[in-house]
Design brief:
Strand order of the largest sheet: 1-12
Order of helices and strands: HHEHEEHHEHEEEEEEHHHEHEHHH
Strand content: 5-15%
Number of helices: 13
Shape: rod-shaped
Number of strands: 12
Distance between the termini: 74 Å
Radius of gyration: 58 Å
Length: 457
């Protein structure tokens, strides 16, 4: 059945004539059928090549979605990150409309050690003198008062920082992906925090340098003390403020004279306090010290006698960034902030952006619409051109075929020539016999044979 169908199709193709005319005959029929075959094969072959090229060519496809939702935008941003474009209804969006941040300050800023009750309990009514100032416990109340002030300054700096951050705007002419928004929020927040930290550090450093540079006298007599001249100097001599000296270091130095903090033990010996520093100015001593002793119950009990029963030491596990060996300077440089947590609501950002539409493009192969439009667009012109030149190609093929005559068999030619000669001989004899008969029957036979009356034998 398949073979019969193939034979019928082959016969139909061989007998197909798309160039048949009303004046067609047996002589023009081969040319017309050959032109038809050239036309069909050329058209199908060229269209097949064009179809393959059109199917594999990369085609840019552009799409537009109107009023896309937050979920739709996220899907498009994930799938078409390079070509997606969603113009925002407003270009500047403030951070406080979709972002927030909170901090955890160092545990010391929420402990009882910076409460005024604790500070007052360490204050002593004893007269501060040259001898008593070497006992760190005399100035311990001022130590904690300085830390309390640094905690207040850190919190104030953070409030100013978060206010400046919230008022800033993210410049977003078009909606961007969630990851980019979060990274921009974090970068802006970190930049604002770094600026606030640097401002606090410079302010504190300026106060310290002005105090030491101008040789301001501390009320605790930790940098200068009042020295009275001997009585034999006379009545014109007056007391002077003299700088204190510690191991050949003068408090006239801007950098101060730092040394380990000590206090007089019950046995009269000096006891060194772990992590704590004494200096010419109490602020310098506080910034150089650590809170190591306040993480240990034994050290705390030794330093504060008697110790209130409700006072709890600090826990190292509560620290996220700092350790028990972190100095107050390190804590101050970070505005006493131990941990920062930021929260970015991308849905709120997108609602503020509120794009009216999203356009995107992508490339793909096997575009059905492009495939069919290409074939249909080329078919008409291609068919016309091939139909125009096919008859000329067919005629050229037939002329060349007719010029190429095949070689003839020589014995066959000789046989034909011999038979032709025999036929001519018989006809010649028959002609002569007929002439003789005509000559006998008629008196003027030649007159009938030739109109001019002349006959050459």
């Amino acid at each position: 059945m398949v073979c019969n169908l193939g034979s019928r199709l082959k016969k139909l193709f061989l007998e197909l004539n798309l160039f048949k005319k009303s004046s067609s005959d047996e002589q023009t029929l081969p040319k017309e059928r050959l032109a038809t075959r050239i036309y069909v094969c050329s058209l199908v072959g060229i269209l097949a090549i064009i179809a393959i090229v059109a199917a594999f060519v990369l085609r840019a496809v552009e799409k537009t979605k109107y009023a896309p939702s937050h979920t739709t935008f996220s899907q498009l941003a994930l799938k078409y990150p390079k070509t997606l474009h969603c113009p925002c209804s407003k270009s500047g969006i403030t951070y406080n409309t979709f972002a927030s941040a909170k901090v955890n300050f160092h545990q010391v800023c929420s402990s009882e050690f910076i409460q005024q009750t604790w500070i007052d309990s360490m204050f002593t009514n004893e007269n501060i003198s040259m001898q008593s100032i070497d006992d760190f416990r005399v100035t311990l109340g001022f130590f904690w008062q300085t830390i309390a002030g640094i905690c207040v300054a850190g919190k104030k700096s953070w409030d100013d920082c978060i206010a400046s951050f919230g008022a800033a705007r993210i410049l977003s002419p078009s909606a961007v992906a969630e990851e980019i928004v979060r990274s921009q929020v974090q970068a802006s927040l970190n930049s604002q925090i770094a600026l606030s930290q640097a401002t606090l550090t410079r302010t504190l450093l300026a106060i310290r340098r002005m105090t030491s540079g101008n040789q301001m006298v501390s009320a605790l007599q930790t940098n200068f003390y009042l020295r009275y001249p001997p009585e034999d100097f006379g009545p014109q001599s007056s007391p002077k403020m003299s700088p204190r000296m510690f191991n050949n270091c003068s408090c006239l130095s801007v950098k101060g004279c730092s040394r380990p903090a000590t206090f007089n033990g019950s046995d009269g010996h000096l006891v060194t306090i772990p992590g704590m520093i004494m200096d010419c100015l109490i602020v310098d001593a506080t910034l150089a010290s650590t809170l190591q002793c306040y993480y240990n119950q034994t050290c705390l009990s030794l330093l504060h006698q008697p110790l209130p029963t409700d006072i709890q030491v600090m826990s190292d596990r509560s620290n996220k960034h700092f350790s028990i060996h972190s100095t107050i300077q390190m804590l101050s440089d970070k505005m006493m902030i131990d941990e920062i947590t930021s929260n970015t609501r991308f849905d709120l950002y997108y609602s503020q952006c509120n794009p009216a539409y999203c356009s995107y493009s992508y490339t793909r192969r096997f575009d059905v619409l492009f495939f069919f439009t290409t074939i249909i667009g080329i078919f008409g012109g291609l068919s016309f051109v091939i139909r125009l030149i096919a008859p000329f190609i067919a005629a050229a093929i037939l002329r060349r075929k007719n010029r190429a005559v095949p070689p003839v068999n020589l014995p066959h030619v000789m046989s034909v020539r011999q038979n032709r000669c025999k036929l001519e001989f018989i006809l010649t004899d028959f002609f002569r016999m007929g002439v003789g008969i005509i000559f006998i029957s008629h008196p003027h036979p030649y007159k009938h044979l030739h109109p001019h009356g002349n006959l050459k034998s």
